[in-house]
Amino acid sequence: MSSPQQRTGQAANTRRSDRSAEQQGHASAAATTAAGKNSLNVDLPCVGAVELPPPNQLAFIGGLAVLIGVGLMEWPVGLALGVGHVLATSHHNKLLQDFGDALEEA
After folding, report:
1. Which of 48, 57, 76, 83 is the most buried (most CB within 10 A)?
2. Is 42 helix (H, G, I), strand (E, B) or coil?
3. Pairwise CA distance, residues 81 & 83, whole Å
4. pTM
5. Which residues, given as ranges, of the chain have pLDDT below 50?
């Protein structure tokens, strides 16, 4: 048979684990909300759902396309800038994803 102290300790452990699970749920919801705010989803008829980068990245890539189209920038330079920008931002998104995973585990 368990003593009153053991039952009290077990109840405290249960409350702590409940709080921990609740905090993990809040962190997960926050990460999902943040990820949703940093992308744009477009539903195309033939292709389906397509996830576009955030508007500021679309503006950068669009600006490069305009500069190349007008002839103010050579296409290899614009391509290198665009690829570098996409790689840099995908690394940043990976860091955010890892941060979110760490929050879920904490």
Report:
1. 57
2. strand
3. 6
4. 0.51
5. none
